[in-house]
Amino acid sequence: MKVLLQMLSMLMLSMLAPCLPALAAPGDVQRFPAQGTADARLRIYGSTDIEVFAAVVADYQRLHPATEVIYEDLITRELHERFLRGGNTADSPDLLISSGMDLQTRLVNDGHATAHQSPQTDAVPAWAQWRHEAYGISHEPVVIVYNTHALRPAQVPHTRRQLLQLLRAEGMPLRGKVGTYDIERSSVGYLAATQDAYRGSIAGALLAALGDNEVRREDRTGVLLDKVSRGELSLAYNVLASYAQARIDAGAPLAIVEPEDYTLVVLRTAVIPRGSRNLAEARRFLDYLLSPRGQQVLAREARLLPIINDDGSQASLGRNRRPIQLGPGLLVYLDALKRRQFLEAWRSSVEQGGR
Description:
By secondary structure, the protein is α/β, with parallel strands linked by helices. The chain is about 40% helix and about 20% strand.
């Protein structure tokens, strides 16, 4: 019977395979052709995986079938650097959508953004927009994710102090089995780490304990979660919740913990670059993302938490969630000297375990 079930499962997967989107790699480009003759074009640089964002583009094209959309999937820091390197060419992006909200803030501060104001943007909370040039389109808790087969309920940490105790436990049960972002390559990881240092009194001790446990570092959320799902890692710290929830919904043996001491909330932030060649289309797409319909699609199809509720009210964050506010405060740790000092201290701590 078991063999028969396995054969049926393999058959179903082979039948479904043509219908499933291929997992994109960083730098992959996907073209969404217009339905018929194209009379508008939109090029997006985005840090959200193509397979997650494709449903959003598809719904937009139902409203605007004559628009061709080109989406390039990039890691947050590469997105930022490629935009600055690119100049104003035919392949320049018309819209930048990134969870690296500090880097998006820098673009605004340095004069690279175009202001946009509309009834849709006016509904965005004050903490989720800056100068009408950077807008949060969704919010994202930064969480602990663990493999439910690897940790007993009594072991699961619900605060950073409990995580620290688990990392220091006799026998070091998480040695080689805990992961987090490589903050030298991941902008959202760097942002979360600097916010921990700013808010948390035990941030230094926790970082040292991660180093003692030979923490595994990756630059993408999906890679970390794949390793936790397979049991290569037991736990991942400071990762984006939406990707984990999507895997849980698909049956992965994962669970999410929003730390009770505080749960950071980052924003996926949209910026229209100055000099956009398709400015009207960029404005229209941003308004769509912030419209009730766009916010519903982000929540339902992409599993991203909206900024604005269906009734037009601002999303409630909950008691323990601490939003990272868009604005000049995010520029502090982007100062070249401060960044270098922070990375040196971080590297010294996480590499002390020999990795």
